[in-house]
Amino acid sequence: MERFVWRVLPFLTFLVSFIVFFYLQDSYRAQLHPQVKLTENKCSLLHHRHFWITSKRIVTPQGIISGSVEIKEGNIISVIEGYGKQGNSKHEEVIDYGDAVVMPGLIDVHVHLDEPGRTAWEGFDTGTRAAAAGGVTTVVDMPLNNHPTTVSKETLKLKLEAAENRIYVDVGFWGGLIPENALNTSILEGLLSAGVLGLKSFMCPSGISDFPMTTIHHIKEGLSVLAKYRRPLYVHSEIQQHLELTDKGGPRTYLTYLHTRPPSWEEAAIKELVGVTKDTRIGGPLEGAHVHIAHLSDSSASLDLIKEAKSRGDSISVETCPHYLAFSSEEIPNGDTRFKCSPPIRDAYNKGKLWKAVLEGHIDLLSSDHSPTLPQLKLLEEGDFLKAWGGISSLQFDLPVTWSYGKKHGLTLEHLSLLWSKKPATFAGIESKGSIAVGNHADIVVWKPEVEFELNEHYPVFLKHPSLSAYMGRRLSGEVLETFVRGNLVFKKGKHAPAACGVPILAK
Ligand SMILES: NC(=O)NC(NC(N)=O)C(=O)[O-]
Ligand SMILES: [Zn+2]
Ligand SMILES: [Zn+2]
After folding, report:
1. What are the pLDDT digits (tens) for 219-274?
2. Could you tell me if 288 and 228 are in contact, meaning their C-beta atoms sit under 8 angstroms apart?
3. Quick one: CA dihedral 376, 381, 382, 387, positive or negative?
């Protein structure tokens, strides 16, 4: 027995010192880097708060690099060239993404989350889960479809309460400009002081009774307040014109709907707006204000008016949406009201010109205009384009849809990050986001542009009503692998972080 003890003693001594060494080293590291402690973080699927990610394709403002990004406490603290390299802070966790693309998270500035009041349509929980699954790290919520609409500081408070602990990505809010508050500056100032990023108005009926349309007179009033706050006005730019109605095959054909909202409606609205934006030039009476044209569909006369206004120095910008770039009116099947939106999807010639404008930089940014409803209001059975709710559901697929249809037109990864991240951040005034740069929030999407998938019933769709999405049934390229919001890994391989730790973004 004694002999046995003497034999195993050296081995036991070695084992004990081995354990003690690693225990001490770990507690030393934990003292130096408290974030190394492997405590559970419900906000993230990754337990580290200080780590590196490395990839052969990182999209930065200086171009695509093979390199590494250091993330600490939610921010990007260094970006270095060299795949697999780590700077001076050794010993941190390194996540190796190989040749997957590391890009700034998408910022979708046009999303209807419909809460409070119409949670059955969409909601903070479902909508932001869909965003996270699609690599969208920030959404800006529209002031309508929720009930009551966001048109005062009190109604913004209801939004913030509804969003509490329910958002998986960061969320900003647009306030509504309606006749009532346009003529009552104190309501408008209260709303802006409470933190909306800007205002949104409609120049035609919105389809929502507590969100009435504004005339150019109301818009001028709104702009004079916005100039003081240096925040933008977002405009649904269509004005109803007299229609010569001819029968185009009944309410189940898309052509019938198309003829009820011709390009002249967009042109009429934009003509009135550019009459006002001349005052936003430097030194003008509305300097500081900015007009942003929502969801441009007409790539002819309407776009020309915007281009001219820009070249004269007006503070004006324009977005279009993936559905105007992916689809053309000729291919929309009879009765398929999933494709109904306003302004409508126009013909293939218009779509080609729209792509050209996007690639030449005349369209500033992209947004989804994700605007779902209840399936029964979409009238999928009846297929009546005139009576069905207008709005496309797409939030989760912003990235693969833009990429799948865009690459044939020469769209690059750099275009994507400008159109979906940098420009939207600048427009919404959220400068700490939108690019992979030192000091910015670590809002990042990791994805594989080359991977193709069928968007069918087996695909994990997080939208509240997947059946409403016009993209169901399509084959797309571009698979989102992982999404980080302020350094939290909020989505990975079909799974979300346990807790919703997105933050409301309020303007100061
Ligand atoms: N009330 C809405 O959500 N309207 C939206 N509907 C669309 N685009 O068809 C919009 O943004 O205009
Ligand atoms: Zn609109
Ligand atoms: Zn909208």
Report:
1. 999 999 999 999 999 999 999 999 887 778 999 999 999 999 999 999 999 999 99
2. yes
3. positive
Amino acid at 263: P
Query: Whose CA is closest to 236, among 296, 188, 196?
Result: 296
> Per DSSP, which regions of 82-132 are E strands?
93-96, 101-104, 106-111
Instruction: Decide if 451 is inside a domain.
Output: no
Q: Does residue 417 contact residue 443 with C-beta atoms inside 8 Å?
A: no
Number of domains in the chain: 1
Residue 83, domain member (yes or no): no
State if residue 212 touches ligand 1 by the CB under 6 angstroms criterion.
no
Ligand nearest the Cα of residue 269 is 2
Helix (DSSP H) and strand (DSSP E) numbers for the chain? 14, 19
pLDDT digits (tens, 9 = 90+) for 341-356: 999 999 999 999 999 9
**Gap from CA of 360 to ligand 2 centroid (Å):** 24
ipTM of this complex prediction, to 2 decimal places: 0.98
| Nearest residue (CA) to ligand 1, atom 6 | 391
Residue 112 alpha carbon, nearest atom of ligand 1: 3
The residue segments making up the domain with residue 342 are: 104-440+460-479
CATH of the domain at 344: 3.20.20.140
Q: Does some domain include residue 197? A: yes
Cα–Cα dist 148/57, whole Å: 45
